[in-house]
Design a protein that fits this description.
Largest sheet: 6 strands, parallel
Structural class: alpha/beta
Radius of gyration: 39 Å
Strand content: 15-25%
Helix content: 40-55%
Number of strands: 21
CATH class of the domain at 49-192 and 227-272: Alpha Beta
Length: 515
């Protein structure tokens, strides 16, 4: 018997000599070791769960609402944030922005919970969460980009937009551990995805033909049956059960209670619902309410310009336009540039009214800046590139121009009847009654209360733009020009006396100016 055979025989004899009790002890030790290893990785439990209801079409206003609630969840110290999505989709840019925001959350575990449907942009937004949990019968996917054509019919977006969106959803899926090909199939109706298996490692995945061909060792991937939902001319859409089976979702839950048990929450959800502030922002963004703010604000400005001074008109206008921009900021469409343009427009109008009388370049620029600022504050784009954006622009222009027409009618009525209204009549400057007139008739003609008569010649004591002071002998009188600007030290002649108003004109041929 060789040495090797002897060793083998000895080990076999040793094995036969072990009693059943010893074998049982070894088995228990092995089970104990496995239990210890399992105890090292207990299921994750969360102590503070916040649920944000995400409902309706995705718009800039909904995106702003979501951002506010997410910041509130962070302030409440949440370590688990659930976005309960009930949406058919919406604006593409806002959907991508929500997904990126969720992807960047590092202070809590994020979960997208879908009770009924998360389609189109809502499905894209959900891809930014750490986990997706879906009701078994809910719908998920179908995120192909579309746009509204000039004939009011929806059409598929051009290839440039589809290619960009395909890359976006693939990146989102890769960063959250989901099959990139299946995510791409949600936005590419021509992509067919197969269930494939690596013949060397046994790994199972879902890949398209292009992915298989571009793999490091394409021959190792055995292509199986195609995924039914990714067939040609169909955007991938699945129910909750199928989403988990394909790896697009991490679990199923039929209710918030099941969801709470899944994450081991001892307390009930902290549900963040719309508040009075959110309702106010929503109402103030209605086109009808926006137009009403415009009309009241412009009428108030007109009254203030008719009776200069920081009075009721100016404060009312400031309140109306302040509320408008505040609501647009919280609605997600306004930026500080819009406020700056509006303020610049008001300044140009003031210059036109009080510094450069008439209606010239300053007035045109002022009105243009006001129009541009109000339109820009109502949208998130500068120039429309899609049918939806064109529709938004036309609606905003309709509100602004309609408000302008209403203001014109109101201004005409005010100018005609302002003096007859008991309250508003006090805001106008009326000419004095004959018994109290400050310019009276005398034997030498009309005489001002200061002693100035028609035809008197004096010297401008300050620049007249158009109002200022002029010196007539030893008297200093408040005067206005008849339209032209007059520098200081120029000879002027009184051409009109009306009430307390002294109108002067530069003496022709005078070239004297003060140093």
């Amino acid at each position: 018997m060789t040495q090797e055979k002897r060793r083998c025989f000895n080990w076999m004899a040793f094995g036969r000599s072990l009693s059943p009790s010893v074998l049982l002890l070894c088995g228990l030790l092995l089970l104990g070791t496995a239990a210890v290893r399992g105890a090292e990785d207990p299921p994750v439990r969360y102590s503070r769960g916040v649920l944000i209801r995400f409902e309706g079409p995705i718009t800039p206003m909904l995106k702003a609402y979501f951002d506010r609630k997410l910041e509130l969840a962070k302030a409440k110290g949440a370590d688990l944030v659930v976005i309960e999505i009930e949406s058919p989709g919406g604006f593409l840019n806002e959907s991508e922005a929500i997904a990126r925001t969720l992807l960047d959350v590092d202070w809590a575990h994020t979960v997208a919970y879908v009770p009924k449907q998360a389609l189109s942009g809502a499905a894209i937004a959900a891809l930014g969460c750490d986990e997706i949990v879906i009701n078994p019968h809910a719908a998920f996917g179908d995120a192909g980009p579309i746009f509204l054509g000039e004939d009011a019919l929806f059409r598929h977006a051009p290839e440039k937009i589809r290619s960009h969106l395909a890359r976006v959803v693939r990146d989102l899926a890769e960063q959250t551990g989901r099959p990139p090909a299946l995510a791409e199939a949600m936005v590419d109706m021509g992509l067919i995805v197969y269930r494939v298996e690596n013949t060397q490692t046994g790994e199972v995945a879902f890949m398209s033909d292009a992915e298989i061909e571009s793999a490091q060792n394409p021959e190792l991937w055995k292509k199986g049956k195609p995924v039914l939902e990714s067939r040609e001319d169909k955007f991938l859409e699945v129910n909750g059960l199928r989403a988990v089976e394909l790896g697009l979702a991490e679990g199923n839950a039929s209710s918030r209670e099941e969801l709470r048990q899944r994450y081991g929450l001892d307390d009930e959800w902290i549900v963040l619902k719309p508040t009075g502030l959110d309702t106010a922002v929503y109402v103030l963004n209605w086109p009808l309410v926006t137009g009403l703010l415009f009309v009241i604000g412009m009428v108030a400005l007109y009254i203030e310009f008719s009776a200069p001074g920081i009075g009721l008109g100016g404060l009312t206008a400031l309140l109306c336009f302040g509320i408008f921009f505040w609501s647009r900021f919280l609605g997600g469409t306004a930026e500080w540039l819009d406020v700056v343009l509006f303020a610049a427009g008001v300044v140009f109008l003031l210059v036109e009214l009080f510094v450069l009388p008439g209606f010239g370049i300053a007035g045109v620029v002022g009105l243009s800046l006001l129009l541009i600022s109000l339109v820009m504050a109502g949208q998130t784009f500068l120039l429309p590139t899609t049918g939806r954006e064109l529709h938004t622009l036309m609606r905003t222009l309709l509100v602004v121009l309609g408000s302008g027409v209403a203001f014109t009618c109101a201004a005409f009525a005010i100018s005609s009847y302002l003096g007859e209204l008991p309250l508003l009549g006090r805001m106008t400057l009326r000419p004095p009654e004959p018994s109290t007139a400050v310019a009276i008739e005398s034997g030498d003609g009309v005489v001002h209360h200061s002693g100035v008569r028609l035809g008197d010649v004096g010297v401008s004591d300050s620049p007249l733009r158009p109002a200022g002071k002029a010196r007539f002998g030893d008297q200093y009188v408040d005067v206005v020009t008849d339209g032209l600007l007059i520098e200081k030290g120029v000879s002027v002649r009184v051409v009109t006396l009306r009430g307390n108003r002294v109108v002067v004109r530069e003496v022709e041929g005078d070239s004297s100016h003060s140093e």
